[in-house]
């Protein structure tokens, strides 16, 4: 048990239905190593965590949990009673997530205008970051890219734009890239073990460093979200949840030269502004949302 001071509870003890995977920065919390005199957690062990995003935003199944930022932005635009906490659960650079099939010939990032890109869902946060990078850094005209998808949006009210095409039943992202039915695919950080698959963006480390020098932000992916009613009625619980997340993150050790899990609105503001801009330009949200609108009066001050 970690020797952590616990703040005095302002209300009765509560059990929170929680969606939170076990990562190094959440392990202490998930493993029960952090004591709280205010919160008990009922963790849903759905794997991977993104399988819980749809019931989170459609059914409000959880009191709190990690949620991909684009899913949250769409939920916010649709009026879902959820509020963001300035607590990053997962952040990562995205340049290594898109691949092409070298066996079918060379392909550079700037060649994708007029091509077909496969991704699990158009609304996937990784896809939004990658498309933003392709547009800004390599001049890809996203309006002239066809996106091939395999899953519905998490938020039921959202409709994919006209240049998004649903793959035929039985098709897979890997199989379509092998067959040349798509020109590139956004897989995530672990490419399928196919000899011809190559990272589309060359010199990955140099590309990441150059992008970070230019933007000075972490591409945040999953952040903590709570029901609006919980934040309104039990701000003491929200403060305690934030404290536990901070302590759990610190228990994982020093963050390294770049903190990939930034906490606090000030640390997150520029990253959130960027993904909001990318999302609006990619027609993922109907209008730009101000960063401060993502929080309420109780969550906006966390970490200040």
What would your notes on this structure say?
This protein is globular. It is of the alpha/beta class. The protein folds into two domains: 156 residues, D-Maltodextrin-Binding Protein, domain 2 (3-Layer(aba) Sandwich), CATH 3.40.190.10; 121 residues, D-Maltodextrin-Binding Protein, domain 2, CATH 3.40.190. Helix content is 31%, strand content 18%. The two termini are 28 Å apart. It has nine helices and eleven strands. It has a six-stranded mixed sheet, sandwiched between helices.
How many domains? The number is 2
Low-confidence stretches at least 5 residues in length (pLDDT < 50)? 1-9
Shape verdict: globular
Q: What's the pLDDT, averaged over the residues?
A: 95
What is the strand content? 15-25%
The largest beta-sheet arranges its strands as 8-7-6-9-5-10
Note the topology.
Layout: E1 14-19, H1 27-30, E2 39-44, H2 53-59, E3 64-68, H3 69-77, E4 82-91, E5 98-101, E6 116-119, H4 125-138, E7 146-149, E8 164-166, H5 173-179, E9 184-186, E10 197-199, H6 204-215, E11 220-227, H7 228-233, H8 235-251, H9 265-281
Parallel strand pairs: 1-2, 1-3, 6-7, 6-9, 7-8
Antiparallel strand pairs: 3-11, 4-11, 5-9, 5-10
What are its keywords?
304 residues, D-Maltodextrin-Binding Protein, domain 2, 6-stranded mixed sheet, alpha/beta
